[in-house]
Structure formats: structure tokens, C-alpha cells
Amino acid sequence: MQYREIGSTGIRVSEIGFGTGDNAGLMVKGTPEEMERAVARAIELGVNYFDCSPDYGKGVAETNLGRILKKLGARPLITTKIEVGPQNKDDIPGRVLQSIDESLARLQVDHVDFLEIHNAPAAQHKPATEETVRKQGPDSFGPPWIPLVLDDYIGPKGALGALEKLRGEGKVRFFGFACEHAEVDAAKKVLDSGHFSIINVWLNLMNPTSGWPKPAGLSVDYDYGQLIDYAAAHGAGVAVIRPLAGGATTGASGRHALAGGGMSRNPEPFLAEQRRASPLGFLASQDRTLAQAA
Q: Is-above-0.90 flag for pTM?
């Protein structure tokens, strides 16, 4: 296993982490034996970074991971997240404090190494999005959180004060935020603040724009503007998400039976991604699968 340092934190993590999201499904829908076997094998192979969120299975993934790590007597590096919904936007600090205490209880640990704000940065609030999330509820196809502006992150009524309080109490070591569907300029301003040590961002064959300029002729829903380079220049590390485009670049005929998340509840976006991925089949060969090439 190879290891890299997360930004300027001094923390070295395995290049391959262990995700617990609904789209993978294992830590939400798998059997206890399947989960334990996978976690034990990952640790045996040198994986020391586990990523979770209270949104994955509505707390189920955190509960399962905590139970298994305790049984194995293992304490890898752990990232979890907080989500701010429309009902929380008037008390973001309170939401941060409540969410992490609930996560620590499920994970059966006294602290996490990284706590990320799951909400993507945006230049301004989007009342239409907030109202849609409020009407659809937590089981809608989309995420249950809303875009946040810079002030929501670091302003006097934002998340930063609560995050610093948690660090002072020893419950959190470093802060981060997710950039799924983020507005790049807004994400860069959050990084400019110097308070955040890690980000999540998409990087895959279908959308490589967080790492490279958008290739001519490629159509993407979000241009992530080489955020990986920007984060590195600001002392922040990057944990890549969706490296296989939610499964579209595996060459499989459909999503895994355990897979959850919005793409399973509403398969049309996934099918569209598969159609876009189909011309990439030439990357597979006798010695390598399309997933390995991806």
C-alpha cells in the first residue's frame, strides 16, 4: 500500500480509502459477515482511511463501521460529515454540534480525524433548491442538504466557530468540505480562508475537470476547474469521490445489487452515464478491465 500526506496536516493516509456510502451499498445493506470480512481485509492490506457520513443509510453505515472496528480492535483514520438542511440554516453551529455528537456515538469513538461539511459551496443561497429539498424530504432522489455560501462556512453565524469548539474539546482534529456539484469560485474562497484541510471532489473518466482542463468536445454538468491543484496550493488534501462515475465506468450491465443512493432509486441518470461511458470500452484489454483502466 502506498501512502500520501493530507495537505499540510502531517497525517499520512493510504492512497485507497474505504468508502461507506449508499452507492457502494456494503456498509448499509450487506450482511454483518460481509461487512466485517471487507473491513478486516482492507485493514490487513494497509487501508487506514475510512470515510463515512450520517447520511449514508441515515446513520446505518456509521453504526456498522463503529461496531466492526470495535470488534476488530482497530482504530483507523475516520472522516465523517455534517449536513445542513433548510430546517437547520438558521442555526448552523447548533447543527454541527448536534450532528457530530450523534456520529461519535454511532461510531463508538471519542473523536474523528476529519469532519467535513457535506454541503457544496455556492456564491449565493438558492431558495428554490431549499424549498425543493424541504418538500421532498430526506428520502428524495437528491441530497438532503442545501448549498452554503462563504458566510455559512466561516462567518459569525456559520460553522467555523462550532468546528473550532469541537477541536478544542478533542472531538475533531481537522476540518474539510465536500465539492459535489460545487461552484468552483465559491469553493476556492472557502479554501482561501485557510481553515480547511481536506476536500472531496469528483474525478473520473466522465468528468476529469478537477484534475485537468476540460477536454475539447467533452460535455460536463459541472466543471470543477482543477480544484485539486488549487487545494494543493492552499495546503489542503483531496479525497476523490466517484472515481468510477458511480459505477458507469466499470463495464457492468447495471448497478450492484447492494447499491443504494439516488442513482438506484432513480436509475435514469445512471443509465445516461452508462451510455456516455460506452465508447470508453476500448480502454479495457485482455489484461485489464474497464474499471481498472478507469
A: yes
